[in-house]
Specification:
The protein is an all-alpha fold. The protein has a single domain, classed as Up-down Bundle (Ferritin), CATH 1.20.1260. It has six helices and no strands. The longest helix has 26 residues. The radius of gyration is 16 Å and the shape is elongated. The termini are far apart. The relative contact order is 0.15. The model has no long low-confidence stretch (mean pLDDT 84).
Length: 153
């Protein structure tokens, strides 16, 4: 059976994102709906990647189509996320900082998926799921930025 540290690490990033957004929702009740919606999307993304990993394991889809980024880039995102989680746990983060960090996190994810996945032609269910993952990341960026503007932050 094939194994992919890149795919497994991406799944871990998505799960940690969900945890971070749940925690932010609890920390900032005024933004709870926003953070909870994004957290659920991140859970869904981990599920899509888990299915994609099964297709990869069976040789049905190349790793690069699932995770176009290098392991180094993915690990950088993981470290960024872990630092963000520490700030959340310590409650040493303002709502504005939480939103700006979330924008940075989502921009990194969206950019990594765009070049490879969105430009690929396929009607495969898994590729369509990965395209939805990208579109969700773009949507997250929009709603977070709109929330920042609505609060004049």
């Amino acid at each position: 059976m094939k194994s992919s540290r890149k795919i497994d690490t991406c799944i871990a990033v998505e799960r940690k994102c969900a945890e971070a957004y749940h925690a932010l929702g609890n920390l900032f009740p005024e933004a709870k709906d926003l953070f909870e919606k994004i957290a659920q999307d991140e859970v869904d993304h981990a599920a899509v990647l888990t299915v994609a990993r099964l297709h990869y394991n069976e040789g049905k889809i190349p790793e690069e189509m699932i995770v176009p980024s290098s392991l180094a880039v993915i690990n950088t995102s993981l470290v960024f996320l872990e630092n963000m989680q520490r700030k959340i746990k310590d409650r040493s983060i303002s709502l504005e900082t939480a939103l700006r960090l979330s924008v940075s996190l989502e921009e990194t994810s969206a950019e990594s998926y765009f070049n490879q996945v969105m430009t690929g032609e396929s009607d495969s269910e898994i590729i369509l799921g990965l395209k939805k993952l990208y579109l969700d990341e773009v949507s997250h960026l929009t709603v977070i930025k709109d929330f920042l503007k609505s609060r004049s932050l």
